[in-house]
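Pasting as-is:
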Amino acid sequence: MINQQQLWDHEAAEHYDTPGVGMFSPDVLGPTVEVLSELASGGPAVEFAIGTGRVAIPLLEAGVPVSGIELSHAMIARLRRKVGEDRIPVVQGDMSQVSIGSHYTLAILVFNTIANLLTQDEQVRCFQNAAGHLVPGGRFVVELWVPQLRSLPPGHGGTVEVSQPGYLLVDTYDVLRQHVISHHVRFGPEVADGRDARIGRTPHRYIWPSELDLMARIAGFELEHRWADWDRSEFTAESRSHVSVYRLTDRRMT
């Protein structure tokens, strides 16, 4: 059993923010906030797994009221160093279960975080919980990577996803359970023998786009848009990730 509270602990929260670079780059956040602001349609947003406020804070600054749900106490504590509860209210708990209202026009789940739920049942409940937060016609936006199983060499269960100075990312797959473990190896360039390396591991349950769409239908959503990125570029067979926008129709599957 994975203890997510231990996984996203104080150390993970302290190293999560990378101001101005990576996923905190203006080139990333600018288009993200622009799209989400438009999809909110003038109403409030709820962010599932709000983390340290990477998206929520600039979205609030763009004029969209934001509330959040976050499992990690450490992530919430770091968020609170940047913005108070009066500006971005956050409830601690599981995003597949916790409810904080039903008046939102937009629900947000970005940066692959739905994959942190390690069973299909939990992921379906997450969609159902998002639907419960939204007004009729509200939207649920999910950002997620496309499983790279085509990259697996025959007879091998892993791929090197990133190799750069000071950082190595290796993904290992359990294709029967649709599980992937990301192994993050960070090391200092000043030590050649690698004895200063730090290894962190994060488990995920990967989801094919078609499976994600079925989860949405079960919860009463229909797919409105799917883009390859926040710049609204076309999603193709070669896309490595997608931004999917679901609109609540309340035609739940029975």
